[in-house]
């Protein structure tokens, strides 16, 4: 089954001087230009191509990979604005993506970089972008548990912190007090469910919560000590940035964890760093 706006594996049916024709099933044949071919093609060979419609509504194939396929989010730069809407660089030569005015939460400027969701408009059949994410999120019941690891996409900055998209399905919030390291719109990272509130809103953390968080960090510290001949130049006096660079955790969590390892007799804490007890 052909999926417009996504990558498809299509078979070469004909080779010409200007490219190859691919079997696009119900859509007939589609041309892949010669400049898109890196190897000597053969009839029957399968090639992964991205399929889209051009401005004349003709099916096109390319081996270029767009910044985001249909059903995905991506950071894109606005290249032009006209009476139809804003056009963004989709990552495909000679094919920008339209964001109609009806799909814009705010008016944009050329050169601005924004987070865009790509979808197929049911009425026109055109692939377009939107910055109105609410209609694509929180449409299914949330099913998360505390400390569950999830995939996050930073989508918005607010006075409270950062709004993130969880597993491409739900909204969540990383409060400023839980921010570790540098966050920015479009950044993808792993996070954890901190809690699901009674109203259904989801609080997020960038590290495990409570004992589970400390146990996980304890293992990482001991494993790294074993790999580094029993010494790490970090202790409770180290800067938050130095600690985050190695363990991607807060200084407070790091201090509690090495304190527990010290009391358990696994390490000593010296002025130059922590040492593994043999």
TrEMBL record:
Residues 3-64, 69-132, 145-207 form the S1 motif domain. It comes from the Bacteria. InterPro entries: CvfB_fam (IPR014464), CvfB_S1_st (IPR039566), CvfB_WH (IPR040764), NA-bd_OB-fold (IPR012340), S1_domain (IPR003029), WH-like_DNA-bd_sf (IPR036388). This is S1 motif domain-containing protein. One of its GO terms (molecular function) is nucleic acid binding. Belongs to the CvfB family. The lineage of its organism: Bacteria, Pseudomonadati, Pseudomonadota, Gammaproteobacteria, Vibrionales. It holds the Pfam family WHD_CvfB.
